[in-house]
Automatic annotation (TrEMBL):
Keywords: Carbohydrate metabolism, Cytoplasm, Hydrolase, Magnesium, Metal-binding. CDD domains: FBPase. InterPro entries: FBPase_C_dom, FBPase_class-1, FBPase_N, FBPtase, Fructose_bisphosphatase_AS. It holds the Pfam family FBPase. Residues 11-210 form the Fructose-1-6-bisphosphatase class I N-terminal domain. The lineage of its organism: Eukaryota, Fungi, Dikarya, Basidiomycota, Ustilaginomycotina. GO terms for cellular component: cytosol. It comes from Acaromyces ingoldii. Residues 214-345 form the Fructose-1-6-bisphosphatase class 1 C-terminal domain. Its cofactor is Mg(2+). This is Fructose-1,6-bisphosphatase. Its main location: cytoplasm.
């Protein structure tokens, strides 16, 4: 008699974007276009997911043999995921400018592509993306993901570099899909954060995590502490404070969790709270994470979930980028925890 049947009134991502709770861009024309763009991104995530799942079986593991503009060795799945996204976003007819981690230059949609099998229409949106995040984890079967951020071209613009070299606070939507024990797509259109889980049998993302809110504080810190030798004073002092709480304080030492895929570390942080960081240090003067397609989308999601995202001294979403592959230091997570970290920078 305590039987509770599974829901038969499921909310798919498509249904949710079309009908419910979404405060899409004010003009209705724009909102229709954004819906189509999001549908296209949803499909790319399913396509990438299906390749990730069978990568070991179809020779998709390992290096592709090229280096990207950041000097990283590309994995086969980096290259494949990038092609999937570029093709789908071009085909959507809703994109004007694309910026990918794996392409040196921005792509301007509408320019004739040699070797392309279809004509592409130009749209009003710019999509910045990390087609596959966590490449170093691929071959070990550890969680990886796709990150994206979306801008609407400026009034009167036909889509140029200035439409993507903008502070993250001007994004109209951002999200990621994590390929983990399940595929989870997490999305904001500036009206809170929702999480969807892929039901592989029906091929739809289903709303499973409505209105994600970060706890005010967490008990986890997530940082590559192996870089400690290079860290600056405020980071070292903060880490010390959470590992060795002052005697007599009610605080317990924090737990360490670091996956090394930003998508997975941020996903856990959004759900459990705590702090994730990739600081600048004596070796990397701007840190490692890329502003446009890693720091901005994740900071937008964090703020929309009630958290804080900072370089340590500045709100990330306020930064004006000058180059598409620019890096910046990142700390994000629960408000209380990130504010504690910031207090060590202020003491300097
Ligand atoms: P990508 O695989 O897209 O190049 O990104 C890797 C990033 C990010 O996923 C992660 O947070 C970070 O690299 C991990 O870096 P370390 O191995 O230096 O900790
Ligand atoms: Mn990379
Ligand atoms: Mn990445
Ligand atoms: Mn990547």
């Amino acid at each position: 008699d305590d039987y509770s049947p599974p829901s038969t009134d499921i909310i798919t991502l498509t249904r949710h974007v079309l009908n419910d709770g979404f405060n899409l861009a004010k003009s209705s024309a724009a909102s229709g276009d954004l819906t189509i763009l999001l549908a296209s991104l949803q499909t790319t995530c399913k396509f990438i997911e299906s390749n990730v799942r069978k990568a070991s079986l179809i020779n998709l593991i390992g290096a592709a043999g090229n280096t990207n503009v950041q000097g990283e060795d590309q994995k086969k799945l980096d290259v494949l995921s990038n092609e999937i996204m570029i093709n789908a976003l071009r085909a959507s007819g809703k994109a004007a400018v694309l910026v990918s981690e794996e392409n040196d230059e921005a792509i301007f949609v509408g320019e004739k592509q040699s070797g392309s099998s279809f004509e592409t229409n130009k749209g009003k949106y710019c999509v910045v993306f990390d087609p596959l995040d966590g490449s170093s984890n691929i071959d070990a079967g550890v969680n990886i993901g796709t990150i994206f951020g979306i801008y609407l071209v400026k009034d009167g613009s036909k889509g140029d570099l200035s439409d993507v070299l903008r502070p993250g606070k001007e994004m109209v939507a951002a999200g990621y899909c994590m390929y983990g024990s399940s595929a989870n797509l997490v999305l904001t259109t500036g009206n809170g954060v929702n999480g969807y889980t892929l039901d592989n049998q029906i091929g739809e993302f289903i709303l499973t995590h409505p209105n994600i809110r970060l706890p005010e504080r967490g008990k986890i810190y997530s940082i590559n502490e192996g870089n400690s030798a290079y860290y600056h004073e405020p980071v070292l002092k903060y880490l010390d404070s959470i590992k060795f709480p002052k005697e007599g304080s009610s605080k317990k030492p924090y737990s360490a969790r670091y996956i090394g895929s930003m998508v997975a570390d941020v996903h856990r942080t959004l759900l459990y709270g705590g702090i994730f960081g990739y600081p600048d240090d004596k070796k990397s003067k701007s840190g490692k994470l890329r502003m446009l397609y890693e720091a901005f989308p994740m900071s937008f999601l964090t703020e929309q979930a009630g958290g804080v995202a900072t370089t340590g001294t500045q709100r990330i979403l306020d930064i004006q980028p000058t180059e598409i592959h620019q890096r910046c230091p990142v700390f994000l997570g629960s408000k209380g925890d990130v504010e504690d970290l910031m207090s060590f920078y202020k003491q300097q």
